[in-house]
Here is the input.
Amino acid sequence: MAGRVLFGTSDGVLVSLDNGASYTPRNGGLSVSAADPASIGPVIIDATNSSRWLAFSVSGDVFLSGNAGLNWIPASAGLRGTAIQTVAVHPTRPQRVFAGVRNLRSEATSPALYQSDDSAQSWLRFNSALSLDTVNVIAFDPATVALPATTRIYAGGADFAPVGQTPTSYRGGVFRSIDGGLSWAAADTLVPTPVGGPASTGEVTSILVDPTSVNLGNAQVLYFAARGLVRCTLGVPNVEVARIWRSANAANSWAPRDGLPAGVCTPRTQYPAPLALALDGGASTTVYAGTAIAGYCADCGDPVPTLSNGVFKSTDSGQTWGPANNGLPLMSGSGSTLDVLALAAVPGQPGTLYAALNDPTQDDAPGRVYKTTDGGANWSPSDNGIAGISVRALRVDPGAPNRIFAGAAGLEVTPGGVYVSNDSGASWNSISIDLPVDSAQSLALSLPTTGAPTLHAGTEEGVWSLTRVPDGDIDGPPDATEDLAPNSGDGNSDGIADRLQTNVASFEIPASLLPQPERGGSREGTLSNTELIIRGSACQQAYDVAAIDPLSLPDDPDFTPAAGLLRFEFIDCTTASVQIAFHDETFGPDWRFRRYGPANTANVLTLGWLGMGTAATRAGNVWTLNLIDNSPGDLRREVGRILFVGGPVQIAPVFADGFE
Here is the structure.
């Protein structure tokens, strides 16, 4: 919006619509006490959510506005860290969600675990005696979840000693709660004395609880994975602290179970460090470990690694391990398997699991998802439909094991997202509307006894939640919304309901996303019905079609987005012809169609507003866009995918009571 300026101040949030000539407070609900508005530091406008602003107070509280600052509510109340490393849902209390925070600055004072009892709407610090600054994993003992107050929970991560204090007074590793998370105690009494910061096991990355090992009211067998400690002496790597541990008595004591390769000593100490563990879906003595190469530094000029990496398998409860990588992709010019960032076994299906892989030697290399049905003897690609971005999280729906969710991280020119497969990984569809561009680092699923399940995604900007509603054509707008299109839900009058067509999406641009008096415009209470139709034989599936807010994007000088903006994505496309009908709009000669994206798809620094010229034409209230993959403005760098953000804009007069 031209002329818009936002400030976080000691008196809350101030908004100017005239380049700072005047300011209006936007403080409704923005307070930590009844008397005064909160003192605000940064104010963030979500780059993909069309109506969400986040304000961060100097005292560490976070506030959310869903209508461009007009009203605020506590968002993740008490959640001082916004970078979420892991999310977990209580198995029998689906509205209870736990979030583990990643401490980006390695400070020893960061509260790292929070609990929500209202489905991630608000949060409380929940880490009494939990001496972890980063929580990477949260695991429940399934034998104890019937009563939330006595649920046994395990948390793992890292603890950082403050400057000037003795490292041995701090510890990392595994902690246990026997009262549902109210209080915690160390559960890794095997761990050697911490050395120089995190405990010498290194940062704990994964915890497994064997649900078949119940005795005396709780599960007895657990595993955890950590970075461990490998030192080189006279050019020979030695594993001094194990990377995988097993307990047979409910975490009261542990024994090392590290049979992974020791690694190499040149050009520096490098070895496979486990990031993920998974129990086989049919045999509790079979365990899988997904590893990434610790010590490798691409920016340092290290040669491409050649050591064994990827997926390792044990069939004897961790006593011995062997590689299980046949068919997994290798690093370019190397015999090393790609790093494995996540593993997910399918309950009740022995030998079936998924692996998310990433190439550490190439910054822009696409992440991959592979699947095995024979316990790792053979792997095959299982990521058809997922954009070429780094998948960080995999989650199998325990109630429908053919349904798998994948969370992926991204950047401005290739946004991350969340994807779902309903056919055991054969194909994937994006369900990423409103997510931040960096998107999901972790996933958790709430399964209520009645009603729709809710998917929670841990991101760099907090926890985001999606309660799925019926969307039969998986294009973004729910079926109920598409049924509101003109002509009784057949907005393009082709005799077929829009909700049944993957290449037709009917959606609404609500009043909150259009100019209103308090936002500098002249319209109020308008609901714009919009129809998107893909023409031609290619690109027959639209994804994540949605309206977005002009305030969520940088200013576009001299233009007013008075009809609203939108986003959509196509896959398997090199070109696309799209018709967009704005059923409630009247356009004149002073209207243009513009898009937001990079002028050069390989350079994030070229992001901005771009004209479309003859690639956008209009007949009445229908615009036709001719789009080309990887042309200027395409927000998805991957070949064969087109991600569009933009809309019709009106040339702004020099003097008007509008957006300028």
